[in-house]
């Protein structure tokens, strides 16, 4: 796998390493891997969710393969976790939100596709769990953090009784509240993009959805 070396800083953003008080870090890198690109494309095209419903519930301008830049894959990794997350960004923007299609790799398997939305003022991130019919929202307005979880009909089938979606939402909430990520939110607001948000969720899929 060829990594394109970019340094994410406050001025030039291409590779980012975030650290929180517990010394856990998230690294986001831009990579170029044709085989991985093909695998993520195949997973996207195999989604059971309804494109129109995804657009209606998420506010994304459109939800087709051609809408995402599959030539640029953002790899998110967290120290101490075996999972890796991969994201491809939506080519368009509503003016208020940025979107990315994200998947997690655990033990060589891509799983749990999400649509991640971040608001342009960096005050909110929404995790749309496309195969679990769940959405989870984290808001940070004037340093007051709130969470909300919703059952959403994206049009796909879920594994009834698996509890994966609820578990992931609770796990993401725990990552923000009990593992220091809220405390560094002010630092990362200026560079908060979907790929960093999915990085915070790393570990949740492996622990909840096996």
Question: How do the helices and strands line up, and which of them pair or pack?
Answer:
Layout: E1 2-3, E2 16-19, E3 25-32, H1 34-45, H2 51-58, E4 73-78, E5 84-89, E6 97-106, E7 109-119, E8 124-129, E9 134-141, E10 144-151, H3 164-178, H4 185-188, H5 194-200, H6 204-208
Antiparallel strand pairs: 1-3, 2-3, 3-4, 4-5, 5-6, 6-7, 7-8, 8-9, 9-10
Please explain how this structure is put together.
The protein is an alpha+beta fold. The relative contact order is 0.18. The protein is built from six helices and ten strands.
| C-alpha termini separation | 26 Å
Estimate the global geometry from the Cα principal axes: globular
The parts where pLDDT drops under 50 for at least 5 residues are 1-14, 185-192
Spell out the helices and strands N to C.
Answer: EEEHHEEEEEEEHHHH
| Biggest beta-sheet profile | 10 strands, antiparallel
Q: What is the helix content?
A: 10-25%
- Total number of helical segments? 6
What is the count of structural domains?
A: 1
Q: What is the radius of gyration computed over CA atoms, rounded to a whole number of angstroms?
A: 16 Å
Mean pLDDT: 76
- Tally of extended strands? 10
Structural class by sheet pairing and helices = alpha+beta
Keywords:
alpha+beta, 10 strands, disordered N terminus
Task: Describe the structure concisely.
By secondary structure, the protein is α+β, with helices and mostly antiparallel strands. The protein is 24% helix and 33% strand. It has one domain (2-208).
């Amino acid at each position: 796998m060829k990594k394109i070396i970019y340094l994410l800083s406050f001025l030039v953003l291409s590779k980012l390493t975030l650290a929180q008080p517990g010394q856990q870090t998230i690294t986001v890198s831009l990579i170029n891997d044709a085989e991985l690109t093909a695998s993520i494309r195949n997973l996207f095209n195999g989604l059971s969710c309804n494109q129109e419903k995804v657009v209606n519930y998420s506010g994304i301008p459109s939800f087709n393969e051609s809408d995402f830049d599959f030539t640029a894959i953002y790899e998110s990794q967290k120290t101490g976790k075996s999972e890796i997350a991969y994201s491809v960004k939506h080519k368009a923007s509503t003016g208020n939100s940025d979107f990315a299609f994200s998947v997690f790799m655990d033990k060589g398997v891509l799983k749990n596709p999400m649509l991640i939305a971040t608001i342009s003022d960096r005050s909110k991130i929404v995790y749309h769990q496309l195969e679990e019919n769940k959405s989870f929202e984290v808001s940070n307005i004037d340093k007051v953090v709130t969470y909300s979880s919703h059952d959403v009909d994206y049009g796909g089938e879920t594994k009834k009784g698996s509890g994966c979606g609820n578990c992931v939402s609770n796990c993401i909430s725990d990552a923000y509240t009990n593992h220091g990520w809220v405390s560094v939110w002010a630092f990362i607001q200026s560079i908060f993009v979907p790929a960093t948000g999915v990085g915070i969720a790393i570990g949740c899929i492996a622990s909840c959805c096996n």
